[in-house]
Amino acid sequence: MPKLSVPEAYRSGIADIGRLSEEAFGQLFAALQKAPEFNDSKELSAWIGSRVTAVPPETQDAILMSITSMTRARDTGNTTPSVFASDVWEALERLSPQHLEGIDQSLFETRVASLLEQTPIDLPATKADDLKGEVERNYCDARILTDLRAGFRKTIDDSPSLMVVLHSLRISYHDDKGDHREFYVSMDAIDLRDLQEAVERAQKKAIALKNMMKITNITVVE
Fold first, then answer.
1. Nearest alpha-carbon partner for 105 in 19, 8, 191
2. Distance CA 176, CA 23 (A)
3. How many CB atoms lie within 10 A of CB 34?
4. What is the C-alpha to C-alpha distance for residues 32 and 45, in angstroms, rounded to an integer?
5. Which of 32, 157, 160, 181 makes an SS bond possible with 150, Cβ 3.0 to 4.6 Å?
6. Which segments of 21-134 does DSSP mark as H helices, in order?
7. pTM score above 0.70
8. For residues 151 and 159, what is the distance between their CA atoms, to the nearest angstrom?
């Protein structure tokens, strides 16, 4: 079975769970038990912020961002909260042992497992990000480079006889292993127009689908 890998951005926030005082963790846990459902961690953090006074806002945000993100990893691995909490400890111990200094392992695993059982941390936005990532290539960004390409007559000593406007569409993406890659596509004015029309059509279809889903209880996330 592959070993769990905790992204570096989440390691500090996850470790903070084990550093909270009993009062601070108690407040955070009680707030999560009462929290309604939200779309993303920012909304959840804003609601909890006024109810958890013993946890600094930046620490609270880091914890919620980390634990909500790790929820999807647990669901994918289909493990129990307690087993996953143990896997998280082992991953941190292997990847960033400095984050675990002064933290009791048993207390850490118990707290992580109890937080993972709370419904409010299973956020639609996190699920959407997970679904978006389950593809062979995940879009990163794009840029269009435009330049002139000269055309010469048979004798290249003469001045160019024509100039062609050439567009190069660069698409950057992450592959299914998380590696950043890119490729270029040459385009002319007609191609640019076709691409623009395709984008506009996709946007109209998205609006139509969202309007249709308003009559259901299904959340639409972009």
1. 19
2. 42
3. 10
4. 10
5. 160
6. 22-34, 41-49, 57-77, 81-95, 105-116, 124-133
7. no
8. 9
Q: Decide if 99 contacts 92 (C-beta within 8 A).
A: yes
By CB neighbour count within 10 A (0-12 exposed, 13-18 middle, 19+ buried), where does 62 fall? buried
d(CA 152, CA 154): 7
Name the residue ranges covered by the structural domains of the chain: 8-132, 137-187, 192-222
One-letter identity of residue 165: V
The 10 Å Cβ neighbour count of residue 111 is 19
Length of the chain: 222
Amino acid, single-letter form, for residue 159: S
Q: Which residue has the tokens 């909260």?
A: 81
Contact 14, 88 (CB under 8 A): yes
